[in-house]
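Entry 14. Structure prediction run on the chain below.
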Amino acid sequence: MTDPFSLFNSWFAEARTTEINDSNAMTIATANAGGQPSARMVLLKGHGPDGFVFYTNQQSRKAGDIAENSQAAILFHWKSLRRQIRIEGHLSTVADATADAYFATRSRDSQLGAWASDQSRPLDNRATFEARFKEMTERFAGDDVSRPPHWSGYCLVPARFEFWQDQAHRLHERRAFVRNGEDWKEGLLYP
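Output returned:
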């Protein structure tokens, strides 16, 4: 049996060399308490046996969904490799120290943008956002930009993986891994 994290690492390393843009881009699908689904692209910023990490504004729609329903799914699709990986599990917030450390690695403009944006909320016009960005630029002039209290990361802890490899005539290969306590149960799925 193959460890799903090792297989992910192998496929991800290959994607990092073949995908032209954002090989770490993934779709995250969430649903609110009423079951209304929503999907969007985010960037994977860390991964390992503990899970898959991305960062966002905690006042965004996705964060609202996560607060109501921590179950989610992520999807990596690498067209150049004709592969995809689906991962399902539950989300939890990363530690403040982890979020602080990642935030410090972002470009200054990205840091300022995190302060200026009311992510997912209506915006009357682009000029309003640009004015808020300018205000933040002035506010933090000459200082480090601290992480906003409403900005953090989430870690998806996997309960299920599916590795999909395109094959001729739609005879695709699908391998599933389902968490079984501390271990993983592996099996194949029909295409």
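The longest strand covers residues 151-165.
Filed with the rest of this week's runs.
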